[in-house]
Amino acid sequence: MKELFPAKQVMGFVFSLILTVIALLVYYTDMSFAVGMTILLVTAFIQAFLQLVVFMHAGESKEGTAIYTNILYGVIIAVVTVFGSLLILIWDM
Amino acid sequence: MEFFQRFAIPHPSPAIYASMVAIALVSIAIVVGLTYFKKWGYLWHEWFTTVDHKKIGIMYLISALLMLFRGGADAIMMRAQLATPEAKLLDAQHYNEIFTTHGVVMILFMAMPFIFAFMNLIVPLQIGARDVAFPRLNALSFWLFFAGAMLFNISFVIGGSPDAGWTSYFPLAGNDFSTSVGTNYYMLAIQISGIGSLMTGINFCTTILKMRAPGMTLMKMPMFTWSAFIANIIVVFAFPVLTVALLMGTADRLFGANFFTTANGGMDMLWANFFWVWGHPEVYILILPAFGLYSEIISTFSGRNLYGYKSMVWSMVLISLLSFLVWTHHFFTMGQGALTNSIFSITTMAIAVPTGVKIFNWLFTMWKGKIRFTVPMLYSIGFIPLFTIGGVTGVMLAMSAADYQYHNTMFLVAHFHNTIIPGVVFAMLAGLTYYWPKFFGFILNEKIGKLTFWLLTVGFVLAFFPMYITGLDGQARRMYTYSEATGFGPLNMVSFVGAALMAIGFVTIVYNIYYSFKNSPRNIGSDPWDARSLEWATHTPVPEYNFARVPQISSSQTFWDSKKNGHALFKGEIEDIHMPNKSGVPFVMGIIFFIVGFSFVFALWVPAVIALIGVFVCMTLRSFEQDHGYHIHVKEIKETEAKYGEVLNSEDRPRTTTRV
Amino acid sequence: MKIDHAQPLEYSTDQNQLNILGFWIFLGAEIMLFATLFTAYFTLSHRTGSGPTPAEIFEITPVLIETFVLLTSSFTIGLGIHAMRLGRKNAMVSFFAITLLLGLVFLGVEVFEFMHYYHVGATYQTSAFTAALMTTLGTHGGHVTLGLFWGTFIIIQVIKRGLTPQTANKAFIFSLYWHFLDVVWIFIFSFIYLKGMM
């Protein structure tokens, strides 16, 4: 019976619910924009990482390194694009 | 009648009417010719339905050469118009259309298919694979590219060409200032071929990561494969940006959205930003495979291993990241602050360093080498000094304060042609000459080839170096004429002469193909250049299955090892080879996507929806299809091998090679 | 076709392994696709012209429903893959069906949300903000819609053909796609809705 029970998935689901509730604090309580954004950034990236490892089994095959490198590369370039564009078009315009 | 009005050309001229007639006549001639010689079946079975990477590569090659002449015709018309002050050859509108299509065609429909051609032809052979990871997707990529290219090319006879520059900056490209359907063509045609490019990127990344022959670690991959790998990584991460930007541009033009408009909060600068977030990595997508080709060629004809293999690899990895960090240098004058401009000035200068490393690697590869001055080697040797000049003027442009003087002048035009022509175009022609015998079984004539090289080099210098001077003197790009008082006349005439020489040079390539087809000897063996990497270890022309036995890899120069150091390349018995099935669906999907694009261009919603349903049906059919491919059996392989004169069963026999 | 029985079914052939790696690389491209949409949204979210601002049109209730429905569907498809690895075809098909039903609920709420925007005067043409919002949500919603068809095809194939290396491979890749859409939604939830209502 033990291997039938998807312990990993249940843990992941519970954890993602907790993270969502923490993120919702931003809406339901009164806090500064900076604190709120920090909470959102932390919870969103932890959630994404959780999905990647628990549900998507990113590291399980021989290509684990290639897959993680690929995702990391994408995230780095995505972050550069988002913040670089904001710098150009809003913050330093 | 109003319905048909939209298909008319807004700015007709006799030249365009003549082109219409010519296109119609050539189309009829092709159809009649194919029917008369009963070649439809051959075309369908051997080419339209093929999933073989070599045939797809050849189709890319032919498309690229055709587009080279389309873009070249635009170029020569521009130079003719500018050759003398206040010339009347073209009016302002026609000139706008021509510089726009010249840019788009040369970058997206000439250079891109050219590098995809070489990736398709060479990469699976260099890593010892049967084909790419997803052969059918590969065919779909080609047909999407082809549909996009054809859609773009009919614009000038149906509805009018785009005229907002190849960068298509808003608000100029918006409905208010570009009233014809031209810019719709731009958005849709590039979108369709861009999706094809993205799929190619995914396909080749997977192929190179997973399908290398036993023993070929990443650091034993031949340099062209490395360059193709890095270029495809950039494709995967850069093209989605273009997809989204084009989607938004289309929404603005067709659905009244306000992304890049000047009303309701739209921000035209966002387009420029996105365009170059894609556009700068795109530059490296083109140049890296070119560097890969030069590396193969210089190493072969210097008779030496590539100097500094590891530094070459790491410089490319560095470039792949840095290429995403420099895009602002295309619009230093847009209005962002000095801080932003300084950051991007520094990253731009930094990216020159890994490129400089490569230049030294090539020079040291030739150092003490026994150089054979063949045509591919001539291009490579011409490339180094010319490209360095282009690189140095690039560093000049990278200084954001100084850029206020250079921006939008002919200096810039000279700079990027100075990198693209000796960098990419010379590499493509060098690669064409170098790999021609592998795929067509004869060598292109060296004498005519050398003539071509000198025509192109001299033509290039004459055509573009004067622009540095007139640019610094203030001649703006994209201006259809200038007054005599500016004094730009004589230098522009020199440019025209150079452009004419280059045009003659390109014609000699076609003549060379014809001449060599008639006269070149066919008994050249499988390794006519005495080359070093794996693609030369199989027969000429390459059999369908590439290698009868999977090669065993010792180093990045494994074929050289097998020739000179007794490395046993092929071991073991021949086994059945699994091959992918042919399919007509990619071709059909290309046609459907053409219809989708065309319908969107003219806002014909009924055919657009029907065609989109067609796309969906094709995808559904693919989902349910059970496609296991087929096997080529041992007996058949042995017969094929015997036809090439291969003596089997002797495992460690050194291969015989013929040299020229 | 060589089948390696030491591996889970979805990894058991060379082509299967290629498909999975290729799909991961595709997801890398999708990261950039959505990053570009987010860039546009962040740049344009304050540029509302004469139209409404984010805080004026966002409502927490539909967003909460969408979020929990999609999170749950990500969990159920995870259970589906777990069942598949244990060779339990019926359990797997049931979990996949539940996942798709949840996806359908998500889409229904999203359609309701778009109708709400229309009623409060925020259409696609209203402002740069609305265009960026609806394009981002629409691209995600379009992915979910495509996923509903794709998932249905896979369920049909598993029922008809059983758990073979091919069907298992397709189901696994589909689960990657579905989880990825959940990740994208988390970012939409955090940085479009919650940031906009903060």
UniProtKB/TrEMBL annotation, chain A:
It comes from the Bacteria. The keyword Transmembrane applies. GO terms for biological process: aerobic electron transport chain; ATP synthesis coupled electron transport; electron transport coupled proton transport. GO terms for cellular component: cytochrome o ubiquinol oxidase complex; plasma membrane. GO terms for molecular function: cytochrome bo3 ubiquinol oxidase activity; oxidoreductase activity, acting on diphenols and related substances as donors, oxygen as acceptor; proton transmembrane transporter activity. InterPro entries: Cyt_c_oxidase_su4_prok (IPR005171), Cytochrome_c_oxidase_bac_sub4 (IPR050968), QoxD (IPR014250). It catalyses: 2 a quinol + O2 = 2 a quinone + 2 H2O. The chain crosses the membrane at residues 12-28, 34-55, 67-91. Keywords: Cell membrane, Membrane, Oxidoreductase, Transmembrane, Transmembrane helix. It is a multi-pass membrane protein. It is found in: Cell membrane. It is an enzyme of class 1 (oxidoreductase). Pfam families: COX4_pro. Its EC number is 1.10.3.-. Belongs to the cytochrome c oxidase bacterial subunit 4 family. Catalyzes quinol oxidation with the concomitant reduction of oxygen to water. PANTHER family: CYTOCHROME BO(3) UBIQUINOL OXIDASE SUBUNIT 4. This is Quinol oxidase subunit 4.
UniProtKB/TrEMBL annotation, chain B:
Its main location: membrane. It catalyses: 2 a quinol + O2 = 2 a quinone + 2 H2O; 4 Fe(II)-[cytochrome c] + O2 + 8 H(+)(in) = 4 Fe(III)-[cytochrome c] + 2 H2O + 4 H(+)(out). Pathway: Energy metabolism; oxidative phosphorylation. The keyword Transport applies. Its cofactor is ferriheme a; Cu cation. The lineage of its organism: Bacteria, Bacillati, Bacillota, Bacilli, Bacillales. GO terms for biological process: electron transport coupled proton transport; oxidative phosphorylation; respiratory electron transport chain. This is Quinol oxidase subunit 1. Residues 38-554 form the Cytochrome oxidase subunit I profile domain. Keywords: Cell membrane, Copper, Electron transport, Heme, Hydrogen ion transport, Ion transport, Iron, Membrane, Metal-binding, Oxidoreductase, Respiratory chain, Translocase, Transmembrane, Transmembrane helix, Transport. One of its GO terms (molecular function) is cytochrome-c oxidase activity. It is a multi-pass membrane protein. Heme A3. Binds a copper B center. Gene3D superfamilies: 1.10.287.70, Cytochrome c oxidase-like, subunit I domain (1.20.210.10).
UniProtKB/TrEMBL annotation, chain C:
Its main location: membrane. The keyword Transmembrane helix applies. It is found in: Cell membrane. GO terms for cellular component: plasma membrane. It catalyses: 2 a quinol + O2 = 2 a quinone + 2 H2O. The keyword Membrane applies. Pfam families: COX3. It is a multi-pass membrane protein. InterPro entries: Cyt_c/ubiquinol_Oxase_su3, Cyt_c_oxidase-like_su3, Cyt_c_oxidase_su3-like_sf, Cyt_c_oxidase_su3_a-hlx, QoxC. The chain crosses the membrane at residues 21-43, 63-83, 95-120, 140-159, 171-194. Residues 21-197 form the Heme-copper oxidase subunit III family profile domain. PANTHER family: CYTOCHROME BO(3) UBIQUINOL OXIDASE SUBUNIT 3, CYTOCHROME C OXIDASE SUBUNIT III. Catalyzes quinol oxidation with the concomitant reduction of oxygen to water. This is Quinol oxidase subunit 3.
